[in-house]
Amino acid sequence: MRLLICSDGTDPEDKPAKLGGLIAGPCHADTTLLGIIETPDEDQPLRFALNIEAALLRTYGVSPEVVVRAGEPIRQILNQTAENHYDIAVIGAHQFWWQRANSSRSNAFLFARAASGILKTRYDSPESLPPASVRRSHCFT
In 10-116, at which residue ranges do the beta strands (DSSP E only) sit? Predict the structure, then answer.
């Protein structure tokens, strides 16, 4: 099994990594942790956040490959799934990113073109996180 975890590095609770670890650990899945920068100044903060998420994944017995791509997030996720076969993609993003994606039909484009099943987890600001994160998760196959 191959798992792709997409993270923008801003989730204060690392929900994509936790969810990915819960899936990848017991399945002994080959796991890729993907971060995408849209501007050059995002590179170091994102790599720092991805390294923290990689450490969290190791607590689940998962040794992820960390990949950083540059460009528009939806396009880069599509490129990653086109270049590599993944059974599941876990996508985490701040509410703003998903609102922007939803407003441009990008979600429909992503779900129609992705080579994988997609598990999307969304989060708002830390103050408004729901007690049960499952309420904010959606699965698309």
Answer: 30-37, 65-70, 88-94
In order of their start, the domains of the chain are 2-75+87-140 (3.40.50.620)
Residue where the block lists tokens 């960390």: 66
**Which residues, including other chains, have CB under 8 Å from residue 105's CB and lie 6 or more apart?**
none
Helix axes 73-83, 106-113, angle to 10 degrees: 0
With a CB cutoff of 8 Å and minimum separation 6, the contacts of 92 are 5, 6, 7, 8, 11, 15, 16, 17, 19, 120, 121, 122, 123
For the stretch 100-139, pLDDT in tens is: 555 455 555 555 455 556 665 554 444 444 444 333 344 4
